[in-house]
Amino acid sequence: MAKNPVEVEVAIETLAVDGLGGGDHQERPIWVRNALPGEVVSARIVKRRGGARYADGQLLGTAHPERIPSACQYFPRCGGCVLQHASGDYQLAHKQGALAASLKAQGVEAHCWRRPSSLVRLGYRTKARLGVRVVGGQVLVGFRESFSNRVAKLQSCQTLTPELSALIQPLKSLIGALSAPASIPQVELAQGDDARALMLRHLEPLNPEDLGLLTRFAREQDVQVILQSGGYDTLQALDMGQGVPAIKPLAYQLPEYGLSLLFQPDQFTQVNALMNRELIRTALAYLMPRRGEVIADLFCGIGNFSLPLARSGARVVGIEASERAIASAEDNAGRNGLAHRCHFKAQNLYTPMEGGEALERTAQAAFGAAPSALLLDPPRSGAGERLADWAKIPSVERVAYVSCNPETFAADARTLAACGYRLHEVGVYDMFPNTSHIETLGFFVR
Ligand SMILES: C[S@@+](CC[C@H](N)C(=O)[O-])C[C@H]1O[C@@H](n2cnc3c(N)ncnc32)[C@H](O)[C@@H]1O
C-alpha cells in the first residue's frame, strides 16, 4: 500500500458533532464527509492536519438505514451543508444526542425533553455570506468547498430561500462584467419578508461603468445593492440617481403578535423565519408573561424577543452590546406602539458593569420593579461570567435560554443549576437543517 494514499477504504464508527463520519486509518483518526456510522466508504483524503486526515466519502456496500439521496447536487463538495445525506429525523436525533452529551458532561439533567422541532428542510436561509473567486476567467459565487478555501462552483443553493438562490447566476454574470472581478472577495445576501439586499465587498474603487452595471443589476433583479469598501462601517447605498442614497432597512413580520420589525441588512437576525417564530412562541409559552411584570431580555438584538414579550403584557428591559441594534430595537418598539413597555440599553454584558445589581437598578429606574424572569439569547460564547449574578437576583424565578452552541449552553446550565435552578424542559430546534448547527431552547425554573 502507498505510504500516503489519497483514497482509502474506511469503516465509519461515529458521527461527530460537526457532521463528519469518524473512523481510523493507519491508527490515526480520519474524518469523512458524506459518511454515516456502520458504513464502509471510499475516502478521498483532501487534507491532513495535526495527525488527522479529512476526506470526502463515497459509499461502498450497504447504506445506513437513515441515508437519503442528497437534495443538493453540490453536496458533499460544497461546504455549506454537512448532513444532506441523512434523513431529517436522523439529523434531529443526532443534534439532540450532541446536546444531551454536552449536558451530561456538565452533570446537568433535564427534567423533560421536548420533541425536536423541525418545520422546513430546504429554502429556509434568509442570510448568507458567499465567497467570490475568479478561476480561469470563470466567476464562482458560493460557499467554501469542504476542507478548503476554494469557492464551490454553484448555480443555485437549496438551503437559501429561492429568492436569494436566484441571485447566484445573475451575480456571476454581473461580477464577470465589472472592471476588476478579482477585486470582489465576497458578497452578503439578506432577505426580509418582501425585499432583498446584497452587500458587495470590493477591494478596489469601482469606476463609473461598474456603478452603471450595478445600478442596472439592482433594477433588473429588484435587489438593494450596498457597497462595502472596508469594514461594516463603510457600507454605502449604491447611488442610483434617485436623491440622497440611503440604506433601506428590511422587515419581517411576527404575525401572531401583530409585529413588524425593521433591520439593517448587516444586522443580526435569525436566519430561518419559520423556526424563529417557533422559538418565540415556545419561549413565551414557557415564560407566560404576566401583565406588567418585568422581564430582562439579555442579548436582545433588534428586539426579536423583547417585542413579543412586551406585546404579551410584560415590561421589558432589553440589553445588548451593539448601539445600532439598540437603536433599531427602540425604533421597532416605537413603530409597534410598545415604547411604553420597553426600555433598551446598549451595554457589553460580558463586563462587570452589568452584574445583578446593575440589572436590578436598570429595571427599577425604568419600571420601578426588579425583573422576575430572564430571556437569554447570547452569541456562541455563551452568557458569560455575569450569568450567576443575574440568576441570583432575588426576584428572578424563570429563565428561558436560547442558544446556538450546546457546549456553552450546557456550561451555563450548570451555572444556573448551582444557583438553584432546575432545567425544566429543553429541546433542539432545526434552525439550520442539513448543517451541523444546533439551536437549543431551555427553560429553567428556580
Ligand atoms: C444570537 S444574537 C441574538 C439577538 C436577538 N435575541 C435575536 O433573536 O435576534 C446575539 C446578540 O448578542 C449580541 N452580543 C454579542 N456580544 C455581546 C456582549 N458582549 N454583550 C451584549 N450583547 C452582545 C449581538 O450583538 C447579538 O445581537
Question: How would you describe this structure to a colleague?
Answer:
The chain is of the alpha/beta class and 446 residues long. It folds into three domains: 59 residues, OB fold (Dihydrolipoamide Acetyltransferase, E2P) (Beta Barrel); 117 residues, OB fold (Dihydrolipoamide Acetyltransferase, E2P); 195 residues, Rossmann fold. Strand 10, helix 4 and strand 11 form a beta-alpha-beta unit. Helix 1 packs across helix 10 and helix 3 runs antiparallel to helix 4. The longest helix has 18 residues. The model has no long low-confidence stretch (mean pLDDT 95). Bound molecules: S-adenosylmethionine. S-adenosylmethionine binds next to loops.
Helix and strand arrangement:
Elements: E1 7-11, E2 14-15, E3 21-25, E4 28-33, E5 40-49, E6 52-60, H1 88-105, E7 127-135, E8 138-142, H2 162-165, H3 168-177, E9 186-191, E10 196-201, H4 208-221, E11 224-228, E12 236-237, E13 250-254, E14 259-263, H5 273-287, E15 294-298, H6 306-311, E16 315-320, H7 323-335, E17 342-346, H8 356-367, E18 373-376, H9 387-391, E19 398-403, H10 406-418, E20 422-429, E21 439-445
Parallel strand pairs: 4-6, 10-11, 15-16, 15-18, 16-17, 18-19
Antiparallel strand pairs: 1-5, 2-3, 3-4, 5-6, 7-8, 7-9, 9-10, 11-12, 13-14, 19-21, 20-21
Helix pairs in contact: 1-10, 3-4
The protein binds S-adenosylmethionine.
Summarize the model shown.
The protein is α/β, with parallel strands linked by helices and 446 residues long.
Number of strands: 21
How much helix is in the residues? 10-25%
The tally of helices reads 10
Main sheet? 7 strands, mixed
- Beta fraction: 25-35%
Q: How far apart, in Å, are the first and last alpha carbons?
A: 61 Å
